[in-house]
Specification:
By secondary structure, the protein is mainly α. It contains eleven helices and seven strands. The protein is globular, with a radius of gyration of 19 Å.
Length: 230
């Protein structure tokens, strides 16, 4: 089963996963779970590093909306947040010194703290400077309109479709795809699965296993890539 080797070679909380492995893996549903958009089913597609960079570069680096949207893309991509979590952030939830973002109300109502790399914080910092110069206070969400208002969720869907075309990406581009991409990259980098679970905010390790197995079946990839032509 995909991810078995990955799980066997990692520990969570300093304890090797042993007796519970069979119990958890028996619950894993390894078939792909495509998303449902307006009645049509779509398979999960992750982006490459170059495709994400193209999305970021397709946003203006001069105009306020472009600077804001670049920061939003980076937060979704590098922190793996759900779009609702990102849009609910307040400036007080971002701790530059600690390198963390506090999610006060994630899926299911739970809170969590996630980490973010310094380069990603640079994008956020620039947008916060822009909104401060426009007189937008801390009561407004981080990702707000240029007047400090709440961004309409319908704008997000239209934005990603538009920016995907501008970046010449042939895949269907959407906000949650950046979360998929981040999870796949963490698995590829060998990050322990319990750490991925905490970053993504999954209440169950099984959910993370299912999530990764549908988008990045590591064991299968390793097996097929090891084949030769002899």
């Amino acid at each position: 089963m995909a991810l078995v080797n990955y799980l066997l070679n990692h520990t969570w909380g300093g304890v090797s996963y042993n007796q519970n492995l069979d119990r958890i893996l028996r619950r894993v549903v390894t078939n792909n779970r495509p998303s449902m958009i307006k009645g049509k089913r779509y398979p999960v597609e992750i982006l490459t590093d170059d495709e994400v960079k193209s999305l970021i570069n397709a946003c203006s680096n001069r105009w306020p909306t472009g600077i804001r949207n670049r920061a939003l893309i980076v937060v979704l991509y590098r922190a793996g947040l759900r779009i609702g979590e990102a849009l609910a952030l307040k400036p007080k939830d971002i701790n530059f010194e600690a390198g963390t973002i506090r999610i006060l109300s994630g899926k299911g109502g739970g809170g969590r703290t996630v980490a973010l790399d310094p380069a990603a914080f640079d994008f956020i910092s620039r947008w916060l400077d822009v909104r401060k110069a426009r007189g937008i206070g801390g009561d407004s969400t981080v990702f707000c309109t240029l007047e400090g208002g709440v961004i309409n969720p319908s704008y997000i869907g239209d934005f990603f479709k538009r920016i995907g075309k501008r970046a010449n990406i042939e895949k269907r581009v959407h906000a949650h795809q950046l979360r998929h991409t981040m999870a796949a990259q963490l698995a590829q980098e060998g990050v322990p699965i319990n750490a991925i679970q905490k970053q993504l905010g999954h209440s169950s390790l099984v959910t993370t296993i299912q999530y990764l197995d549908s988008i990045q079946p590591l064991e299968l990839i390793d097996i097929i890539q090891a084949r030769n032509w002899d």
